[in-house]
Design a protein that fits this description.
With about 180 residues, chain B is an alpha/beta fold. Chain B has six helices and six strands. In chain C, strands 3-2-4-5-7-6-13 form a seven-stranded mixed β-sheet, with helices on both faces. In chain C, strands 10-12-11-14-15 form a five-stranded mixed β-sheet, sandwiched between helices. The chains are: A alpha/beta (about 250), B alpha/beta (about 180), C alpha/beta (about 350).
Chain lengths: ~250, ~180, ~350
């Protein structure tokens, strides 16, 4: 009997704790498939954040480190610099972790063109703590800490991470993708693979922002949540490649 | 058994810390126990600079010199600030080009050296500090050119080896004045 | 014995760290310890090491966490306000049982405070510095030679016990120059089978982690950690006794305070006063036993500190309050003078506290 579908080797065989309909599972799988396809599991070290994916260290078969809230890019910098020729290092971070408490670490790792890969999960909310306003929550979005909707006069505007970082000379590759339908999942995998390949090739800081759903804290069915990505999130956070230095240099030649 | 507690003081840029370092290194070469402690902080950038140097036959206790046996004052604020702290019977070396007043104490030995003027006249405007060092070594009966050269080798990096000779010359000028 | 060179305490720490095989340094500029970073910036690129000026103290300690996770000797250094920022990372290093070396060249506080020498981070260092139940091995050098020796010792102890070693120095120790011999012996780092340096597909994945959501499991982790701390308390205590054999009065002092006190003790001895000193070299573990024994014959203890009285609490605990413990201190960047210490000793004699 031919195997037509199986768990990637880079994923462990344990049930994940994520809520039904959450897209973390899909993105974990995409990262694991890429690690398998590139044959790098034995030299990959992943950094888990604080947030819903805090226990990602249980799900990936490569060596894993759990970092303090927001500090994953700094920890990744240490791991990478410890053995730059051998270590392949990725962080897996949510929006609160990466764009709020860890913004300084994010910006400076990008500015240094640190040769690491960052998978940035943007679901516009703090999931683990029960649905508070995130730096990426949309204007008017109702959360536990913006019960009347995000008031931009009081709480400011959402942060568009790819656009912001693209102003820096440092980073190699910045792309925004999502996983709310098959086509988008395929595109997301391509971007993630490129972000890892860039590191293998020594090109530097590569960040893939994945628009992700949080049906539990958005208060929606999983299907409605995937639609909400199309209807609300993508208009504010357009998909696309925001920076691809090598491609630009090649086309200029 | 002897311990010399020395305090070097002046403006930042006069080579106060360097002079102290030289004395400490010379002590080290002569197999003494030594310590060197600079003042640090904003005053390093143009204000008053000072450093404590201890050269002793015994292990150095506190590296802080509060009652110097030897005070080097290369400007008036330094003399004003530290004159009273000098141990009775101690020595004060004052740069008389920059300090017009006389030392008020009568229980210390005072040496007025027009170091800044001598440095200018001899084409070594940055070495008033070492002219005074030469004078100190002479008054302490420690003007030993072998030890001086060995210490200079330690404090002057190979890159600036051409400065050795002029430093020695500055000290000779100090010793002769 | 190799030729002695004159070095600043800060430079001696940096050179000794390189000698110990540390090839990764992360820091952020702050007075009075910046010479360490400057030294590393000069040397690391020439020996294939990493010097990185981090965007913050927080980032620096987390870079340390990353290198330590990968199993390499690593360090950071700072001064008091910067150490507060590193508090989070210190707690995580302890929670993940990672070895690292952290240097605190203390300055006066609290807040931004001043830049002159202080010992007022004693509580912060000996009680852990961050949140949760944990300790660091805290080493207090009193000479430039010890700045070098304890740096090497710090790396070795960190590796042996999977803990953070902290060098607790002060502005004087960092800035002063003394002769130092650097031909020091270094024990090779032990194997680190727990390190996250890639599975090579030849073992189960390693996880470096401080999260444990099941209370009885987290309790067991704490118990096990404290069991390890007990072996540290048994094996690692270091101190110096000075003229203690017949002492009626005992000075307790570390670092620069011990240097100043030695002058005062020598003068007091000349005056016939039986005074000695116990100088803790490890502040944690604290040399309790030697103080407990001293209390058998000492009539009065004097804790000389550059703080409002922090180590004095450990002296009282160790001596079980069997003799009075007085405080002789200056703070805010001021340093007690030998005269001040001598006067305190003389007052004890005058008030009958020495017989």
């Amino acid at each position: 009997m031919a195997v037509v579908f199986q768990k990637p080797h880079a994923l462990t065989d344990v049930p994940m704790h994520y809520c039904p309909g959450c897209t973390h599972g899909i993105i974990h799988r995409l990262v694991a498939e890429v690690i398998d396809e590139l044959g790098i599991e034995g030299r990959t070290i992943g950094i888990a954040p604080v947030g819903c994916s805090v226990m990602a260290y249980n799900y990936f078969n490569c060596d894993m480190i759990e970092a303090a809230h927001g500090r994953a890019p700094a920890v990744a910098t240490g791991v990478k610099r410890a053995n730059p020729d051998e270590h392949i290092v990725f962080t897996y971070q949510g929006d609160g972790d990466l764009a709020s408490i860890g913004m300084a670490e994010t910006v400076h790792a990008a500015a240094r063109n640190e040769n690491i890969t960052i998978i940035f999960i943007n679901n516009a909310i703090y999931g683990m703590t029960g649905g508070q306003m995130a730096p990426t929550s949309l204007p008017g979005q109702v959360t536990q800490t913006s019960p009347y909707g995000r008031d931009v006069k009081a709480c400011g505007y959402p942060i568009r991470v790819c656009e912001t970082l693209s102003e820096l000379d440092g980073p190699e590759y910045l792309a925004r993708v999502t996983v709310n339908n098959v086509k988008n999942v395929n595109n997301a995998k391509k971007a993630i693979k490129k972000a890892f390949q860039n590191q293998i090739d020594g090109k530097g800081f590569s960040l893939v922002e994945v628009l992700s759903s949080c049906p539990t804290n958005w208060g929606m069915t999983p299907q409605k949540a995937l639609q909400w990505i199309d209807e609300k999130m993508i208009p504010y956070y357009p998909l696309g490649v925001y920076k691809d230095r090598s491609a630009k240099e090649e086309s200029a030649q | 058994m002897s311990t010399k507690q020395m305090l070097f003081s002046g403006f930042g840029g006069q080579g106060i810390l360097f002079a102290g370092k030289f004395i400490a290194y010379k002590g080290l070469i002569e197999e003494k126990q030594v310590s060197w402690l600079p003042s640090y902080g904003p005053e390093m950038r143009g204000g008053t600079a000072s450093c404590s140097v201890i050269v002793s036959d015994d292990p150095v206790g506190s590296p802080i010199v509060s009652k110097p046996d030897v005070l080097v004052a290369m400007n008036l604020p330094s003399l004003d600030r530290f004159e009273a702290s000098v141990a009775p019977g101690g020595m004060i070396f004052a740069d008389s080009t920059l300090i017009e007043r006389k030392v008020a104490r009568d229980d210390v030995k005072v040496f007025y050296i027009p170091a800044t003027r001598l440095a200018g006249e001899n084409g070594m405007p940055t070495l008033a500090n070492m002219i005074i060092v030469g004078k100190i070594l002479k008054e302490l009966n420690e003007f030993d050119e072998d030890a001086i050269n060995a210490a200079l080798k330690k404090v002057i990096s190979a890159k600036h080896a051409d400065m050795m000779e002029v430093n020695l010359k500055a000290m000779r000028i100090g010793a002769e004045n | 014995m190799a030729e002695k060179v004159l070095m600043k305490g800060n430079e001696a720490i940096a050179e000794a760290a390189l000698h110990a095989g540390c090839r990764h340094y992360f820091g952020y500029p702050i007075t009075p310890q910046t010479e360490i970073a400057a030294y590393m910036a000069k040397r690391m690129p020439k020996i294939g090491g990493t010097f990185l000026q981090a965007e913050s103290e927080i980032a620096a300690i987390n870079m340390v966490y990353g290198v330590a996770s990968a199993g390499y000797r690593v360090m950071t250094s700072s001064s008091s306000p910067g150490i507060s920022l590193k508090g989070e990372g210190l707690s995580y290093l302890a929670g993940a049982d990672l070895p690292a070396l952290v240097v605190n060249v203390q300055r006066g506080g609290p807040g931004l405070g001043g830049i002159q020498p202080s010992q007022s981070d004693y509580f912060q260092a000996t009680r852990g510095g961050g949140h949760g139940d944990y300790h660091m091995i805290v080493l207090a050098p009193a000479s430039v030679q010890e700045m070098a020796e304890l740096t090497i010792k710090g790396f070795e102890l960190a590796d042996t016990y999977r803990m953070t070693s902290m060098i607790l120095a002060d502005g004087t120790m960092g800035q002063m120059m003394e002769p130092v011999a650097l031909d020091l012996e270094v024990k090779p780092a032990p194997a680190k089978p727990w390190a996250t340096n890639g599975t090579k597909l030849q073992r189960e994945h390693n996880i470096v982690n401080s999260l444990s959501l099941v209370p009885d499991e987290l309790e067991q982790l704490n118990f096990a950690r404290y069991e390890r701390y007990r072996t540290v308390e048994e094996n690692v205590v270091m101190y110096e006794e000075y003229m203690m054999e017949d002492a009626d009065i005992c000075i307790a002092a570390f670092g620069i305070a011990a240097r100043v006190s030695k002058n005062a003790i020598n003068e007091a001895r000349r005056q016939g006063i039986k005074v000695g000193m116990i100088r803790p070299i490890t502040l944690w573990p604290f040399p309790k036993e030697v103080f407990r024994r001293a209390a058998d014959h000492v009539k009065t203890f004097i804790s000389v500190e550059l703080s409002m009285g922090q180590m004095i609490e450990d002296v009282r605990l160790a001596t079980e309050c069997r003799a009075p413990v007085l405080l002789c201190n200056r703070v805010g960047g001021m340093i007690p003078s030998p005269e001040q210490v001598l006067e305190t000793i003389q007052n004890v004699v005058k008030n009958g506290g020495a017989n």
